[in-house]
Hints:
Elements: E1 10-12, H1 18-29, H2 45-55, H3 61-71, E2 76-78, H4 103-114, H5 121-148
Antiparallel strand pairs: 1-2
Helix pairs in contact: 1-3
Amino acid sequence: MWNRGVEAMYRVHPQPSPDQWDDALQEIQELDGVSIPGDAWGDDPRIAVNATLEEAPERQLGKIQYAVMKVMPRARYMNDPFGGHHALNFDIYGHFTSPIRRLSDLVNHWIVHANDVPENLLQLCDHASDQQQAGEKCEREYKQFLEEVGLDADAVNNRGIEVVEEE
Length: 167
């Protein structure tokens, strides 16, 4: 769509700044039993992180991923793909799934079907971003509640919780 000069709803997840990458790599380097391979240091910090993940002890993998996640800017929906989708390593990324599951899918399907861009595309992008952020907050609060009442938050799935009483 972008190459054809047509606006659409893109998922933009910009790359962390060089200083943010330095913070993440420093945190990773300080983990017990972890070192960034010398040949992986270079212009692209993602290569260093991937090489480290390959060689790191399994017990440290989550900490390495968390160090990277902490420095990543939040993804947003935008009407142009400027910034790309760093997390997926795509220059341009937009949702276009079937069945349609998101507002962004619906908008992009509409643009293709009608060959027309909604006048309120910027507001739709902001709304989709805000709703996703609200959903993530709700999920965090729900998992925190489950932990507070003694249930395993990781046991929750889209069908609810199965409680099995032990004898």
